[in-house]
Amino acid sequence: MIELRDEPADGAASRALFDEYMGLVRARSGIRDFAPDERIFATEDAFAGDDAAWIVAYVDDAPVGCGGLRTLAPATGEIKRMFVSAPARGRGLGRCLLRALEARAVAAGHARVRLLTTPMLNEACALYAAEGYAEIERLRRGGDDPVEIWLEKALR
User: Is 108 in contact with 50 (CB distance < 8 Å)?
Assistant: First the structure.
């Protein structure tokens, strides 16, 4: 059974999940000294306030996933730091978490949500495509391969 809890983004469970996520990014990118970029990952305080949310997913009282919502622009929410721990993948947790964040976005008055991802997170890209997210921009840092992809989904 999946339990979703509102928690602080800087809580112990969230920090442990973010550390695991950064380990995955380091392993897949091959960059060992990869430091979290505030523009990409946002700070914990970005998920505080009436129009924001931070949710941690639990299975059997163990934290297995997390994600946040913040306002990006008028009527536009942004989903950030969404992650499901490797042992918990393939059970629908990401979809459950994503839909909960989208529901929070609707409650905050957003007409759409956006998120930034990367092709190296192929599981996430597949989930977002299956859930109706469309690519709106590709960002490159030299070379031809996209490093970041902006996705968007209309909520109403």
Answer: yes
Domain that holds residue 10: 2-110
Q: Is 126 domain-assigned?
A: no
Exposure string of 78-115, with b = 16+ CB inside 10 Å and e = fewer, is bbbbbbbbeebeeeebbebbbebbbebbeebebebbbb
Question: Do the beta carbons of residue 9 and residue 68 sit within 8 Å?
Answer: yes
Residue 147: the pLDDT is 75
Report residues of the chain scoring pLDDT below 50. none
Q: What is the pLDDT of residue 36?
A: 64
Q: What b/e sequence results for 4-29 when a residue is b if at least 16 CB atoms lie within 10 Å of its CB, and e otherwise?
A: beebebebebbeebbeebeeebeeee
pTM as predicted: 0.90
